[in-house]
Amino acid sequence: MTRFILTIVALILGIMPDLKAGDKATAAHVYEGRITGLFCGACAGKVKASLRKLAGVAEVKITSTSETGVQKVRIESSSADITKEAAILALGEDARSFTLLDLEKLQ
Asked: What Pfam families does the database record attribute to this sequence (predicted)?
């Protein structure tokens, strides 16, 4: 029982490492681009799942922009070699529904 309580206290205080944070620490490269064709959460889910298949991808975020019908996609990866073409290939058949307008490496 004491061990359980100590574990809970350690988690609350942040002494034990967060497993998710370890993944993000390895994502040294960030890519951002614009994508169209996302009309619902299911569409965004398909794109995220497809892009997560790219080598080294730790996280994919999709957010709205001021442009009508255009969303921003952000990819965090340990790979320095992600290209627009590779992302389109990762979308597979869904690339017909979604258009990746651009993708550039920020860091």
From this structure: HMA (PF00403)
Give the whole-angstrom CA distance, residue 91 versus residue 106. Answer: 21
Give the single-character DSSP code of 39.
-
Kindly tell me the burial class for residue 53, based on how many C-beta atoms sit within 10 Å of its own C-beta (0-12, 13-18, 19 or more).
exposed
Q: Enter the pTM of the model.
A: 0.73
Structural domains for the chain: 20-105 (3.30.70.100)
Which tokens sit at 23? 């993944």
| Token digits of residue 105 | 């490496």
Integer Rg of the chain from CA = 17
Q: How far apart are CA 91 and CA 85, in angstroms?
A: 10
Q: Which residues contact 55 (CB under 8 A, 6 or more apart)?
A: 77, 79, 81, 82
Cα→Cα distances 59→5, 52, 98, Å:
32, 7, 19
